[in-house]
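Try it yourself: sequence plus adenosine monophosphate, in.
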Amino acid sequence: MDDCIFCKICAGEIPATVVYENDQVIAFEDLNPQAPVHVLVVPKEHHANLLDDVSAAELAEVVAAIGEVARAKGLSDRGFRVIANTGADAGQTVEHLHFHVLGGEPLGEGLIP
Ligand code: AMP
Ligand code: ZN
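Structure, out:
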């Protein structure tokens, strides 16, 4: 996708602070963090969101990468939250599938602020 900002990050055309990367997935710091730790886990293949033909194998890679990010950022013991905004009502702003990994402080019990 030529005009996709996350595809450009995956291709190394736009800088990002990379936390973890393998052939299928990249994880980098969110530009506008909403918690002390806020990392985006992004499959390198372009999908608009979770409804866009995402394979079980890709999701398995994402889950494994989330574990790597949690360990790298010291979240394993205290926990963290994962969010995948999907479509307009969820406020999705970047149309390339991504998973927010949030933590580093108690996030509260509610899912929505
Ligand atoms: P969403 O609202 O779920 O689509 O989230 C998009 C996220 O991408 C937001 O939290 C933005 O702060 C983040 N973001 C947008 N552009 C960049 C970028 N170039 N590098 C890192 N994070 C970005
Ligand atoms: Zn993309």
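One thing you can check immediately is this: The chain is about 20% helix and 20% strand.
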